[in-house]
Amino acid sequence: MDSFTLKVPGGAHKKRKRKGRGIGSGKGCTAGRGTKGQNSRSGGGVRPGFEGGQMPLYRRIARRGFSNYLFKKRYEVINIDDLDKFKSDELVSKQTLVNKGIIKNKKIKVKLLARGELGKKLKVELYKISASAKKKIKGAGGEYKELLASIHKQKVEKHGK
User: Fold this and answer.
1) Rg, the chain, Cα only
2) pLDDT tens readout for residues 58-85
3) Does position 148 have pLDDT exceeding 90, yes or no?
4) Is the dihedral of CA 78, 81, 86, 87 positive or negative?
5) Count of structural domains within the chain
6) Would you say residue 128 lies in a domain?
């Protein structure tokens, strides 16, 4: 036996209780459900949120007004210093950020903020870019395209407002 071989601690592998396999099994007869009552029957039990006839919490709490939670906009936020992984004249888009491992969720829109310094000329195409990040991109000789602005522009052209 080598000193680096790991051992499983005693009691780590317990045998599972086999319910309803006779009196001698330890969980026989009533199979751990107790005797009589709603929860001992097959198909028994109560729905989630049931409080024994008392008015449930979800009905006691007042709900008033409108909640914007379902419609809130979520952004994956990155900073200028996260763009160090890119080479000069490379395109920075949501797909390239996912490929480089900078962001994980490719379904959420990306917003670029201005923390850090940019020493490379990059082409940035993201959903939202802060004003100070735009200045830093322009200062480094790069280009940017804000996708939110282009989507808004398309909507305006379509509806003529």
Assistant:
1) 30
2) 999 988 888 888 898 889 999 999 998 8
3) no
4) positive
5) 1
6) yes
The residues, ordered by sequence, that sit 6+ positions from 80 with a Cβ below 8 Å of its Cβ are: 112, 113, 114, 115, 116, 117, 118, 133, 136
Task: Identify whether the C-beta of residue 38 lies closer than 8 Å to the C-beta of residue 44.
Answer: yes
pTM for the structure as a whole: 0.56
Q: Would you say residue 90 lies in a domain?
A: yes
The verdict on residue 144 lying in a domain is yes
pLDDT band at 56 (very low <50, low <70, confident <90, very high): very high
Residue 83's CATH number = 3.100.10.10
- Domain range holding 132? 75-159
Each residue of 116-141: pLDDT tens digit?
998 889 999 999 999 999 999 999 99
Residue 15: inside a domain: no
